[in-house]
What does this fold into?
Amino acid sequence: MHPANGFLPHSLMEPFSYFNKPAVLPPQNSNSPNNNISTLSPKKQKIVELSRITDFIFVGNQVAANSGKDLQDAGITRIIRLRSQPTLAVPDCISSVTFCQIEDLPSSNILSCLAQCLEAIRAARLAHESILVHCHAGKSRSPAIVIAFLMLEHLFTLREAYSHVEKCRNGLAMNPSFKRQLGDFEFEISGRRTVRFCPFCGEFDCFCLQSQQFLPPAALPFSLVKMGPHGGRPVDLTKEGAQQWSGG
Ligand SMILES: [Zn+2]
It folds into this structure.
């Protein structure tokens, strides 16, 4: 079955053979100047405005979207704007703006923007132009859309796509509701789930369960071989790790 079946209008579905085409990814090093194009100011160097995710897709914040120089330096000529309001100035170097009205709220359906964004990203690829997907901070809405794109078009798992975007863009802080929606999206398009969500905080790869020291391992709701956040050291809570975890 076509992976996009039921999720997208028929007009947006590509031939199945396309889906095996690998994404062209930049080096996976968040400190690489090729990935993080600009920073806010010397005093706020950790806040990155513009990050390269694939050969032609960038994620950024509102500052990046307003910075004609940064956009020009990165060769970006198209923008997808995920905001609550469309009324914002457009730098001269931008020839196409796609506006998707969405707020960064738990109640927002991030996938409601996907068809429109997919169309704009594919148009950029066909034209051999680079595109910026941006929201206010570039930490939640825009990375969620690019992660969905990588899953749908390049058959990344959610874990792979999230990990890749996280490595390319410092300070990702995605709305947990969007993560759960992406988890459901993964199940819809592939029939499997590559991340498990914590029943306490709704996140994945969290440390909540380790802090629940009063609970015996048997009381926990699912398998507890977990990865630490940001791809850190695996935390095994099922064997020796459980003793340490329960204070035993
Ligand atoms: Zn948690």
